[in-house]
């Protein structure tokens, strides 16, 4: 999996001009599924995300997790996180998981996170989406197998 996490003050995703998910303070997560990913890998990412201490405490130190600040989460599927641009100028997506595998893991990811935090919103898997956000910081973290 490859994940981009953005700490946000607000974020929303629209499909065909309709908002499918919107949050206030929390995390906007772009999720890319690789061809070798499975539920065990998803569980590791979920655990890491929910334990990340990337929100400021009263002293301004990043010591608080999403749950600590009662933050919200917006999950958006993004297979383009698997773009391989090493050869030529057209990205190759050979390492991205198949659409059916990616959708299954995306839905699993949503289900598991919804069981562990308050408000969780989402985009629509496979849809053309418009994502808007106000990044808080800016604060952006990239997670992949080499980084967790």
Structure explained in plain terms:
The chain is α/β, with parallel strands linked by helices and 148 residues long. The protein has helices at residues 39-51, 99-114; strands spanning 2-15, 18-23, 26-32, 55-56, 62-64, 72-77, 120-122, 130-144. Strand 4 and strand 5 form a beta hairpin. The N and C termini lie close together (11 Å). The protein has two helices and eight strands; from the N terminus they run βββαβββαββ. It has a single domain (2-143), classed as D-tyrosyl-trna(Tyr) Deacylase, Chain: A (3-Layer(bba) Sandwich), CATH 3.50.80.10. The mean pLDDT is 95. Strands 1, 2, 3, 6, 7 and 8 form a six-stranded mixed sheet that branches. 20% of the residues lie in helices and 38% in strands.
Layout of helices and strands:
Elements: E1 2-15, E2 18-23, E3 26-32, H1 39-51, E4 55-56, E5 62-64, E6 72-77, H2 99-114, E7 120-122, E8 130-144
Parallel strand pairs: 3-6, 6-7
Antiparallel strand pairs: 1-2, 1-3, 1-8, 4-5
Helix pairs in contact: 1-2
CATH architecture descriptor text: 3-Layer(bba) Sandwich
The ordered H/E elements are: EEEHEEEHEE
* Share of helix, binned: 10-25%
Number of strands: 8
**Overall body shape:** globular
Structural class: alpha/beta
The main sheet comes to: 6 strands, mixed
CATH superfamily: D-tyrosyl-tRNA(Tyr) deacylase
Low-confidence stretches: none
- Total number of domains: 1
CATH topology-level fold name: D-tyrosyl-trna(Tyr) Deacylase, Chain: A
Tell me what portion of residues adopts beta-strand conformation: 35-45%
Indicate the mean pLDDT. Answer: 95
Distance between the termini: 11 Å
């Amino acid at each position: 999996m490859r994940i981009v996490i953005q700490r946000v003050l607000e974020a929303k995703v629209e499909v065909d001009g309709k908002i499918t998910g919107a949050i206030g303070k929390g995390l906007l997560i772009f999720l890319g599924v690789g061809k070798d990913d499975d539920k065990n890998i998803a569980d590791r990412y979920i655990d890491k995300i929910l334990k990340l201490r990337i929100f400021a405490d009263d002293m301004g130190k990043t010591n608080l997790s999403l749950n600590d600040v009662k933050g919200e989460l917006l999950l958006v599927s993004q297979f383009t996180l698997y773009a391989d641009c090493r050869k030529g100028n057209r990205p190759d997506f050979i390492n991205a998981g198949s659409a059916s595998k990616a959708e299954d893991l995306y839905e699993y990811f949503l289900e598991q996170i919804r069981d562990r935090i308050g408000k969780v919103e989402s985009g629509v898997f496979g849809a053309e989406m418009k994502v808007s956000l106000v990044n808080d910081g800016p604060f952006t973290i990239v997670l992949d197998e080499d980084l967790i």
